[in-house]
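re: that chain from earlier
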Amino acid sequence: MRFRSFAALGIAITLVGTAACTDNSGPDGRAVTGLYALTTVDGVGLPFTYSTNSNTTITLQSDVFTLNSNGTYSEVVQEMVSNGFTSTPVTDNEQGTWSQSGSTISFNPTNSTFNPGLVGYSGTLSNGGTFGNDVLVLMSGQDQFVYQHE
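^ sequence. v structure.
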């Protein structure tokens, strides 16, 4: 997920250990597996635009996690990268394994186009999304990314 560039180019993500899958249901009682689509970044809806240190502007258009029942996940991020002269659409991908311990979901990437160190990270499940669906909240530094369970 390109958002990791917010916090020192992906280095400052919360490191996680391996947690056992103990309960694969979320606060809304539904299975945790399925699609989680990014809805807001720091309370702002998509598309979300931010600047990098290199005079580049990135517009985050979509970001979707798919959590599979076999403990694997994939993530697809659609962005528009602009350097002030041209804009280029970019698709980033990540795959790996996920596990759940209570309301914490831990991600351990095994392949990524934007997380070259394959640094693990975690998020928190809570209730309160649209129509009572679970939300997954990921933090990167001070930035909050909220994903709605579809």
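The beta strands are 34-41, 44-45, 48-51, 57-67, 72-82, 87-101, 104-112, 121-126, 135-140, 143-149.
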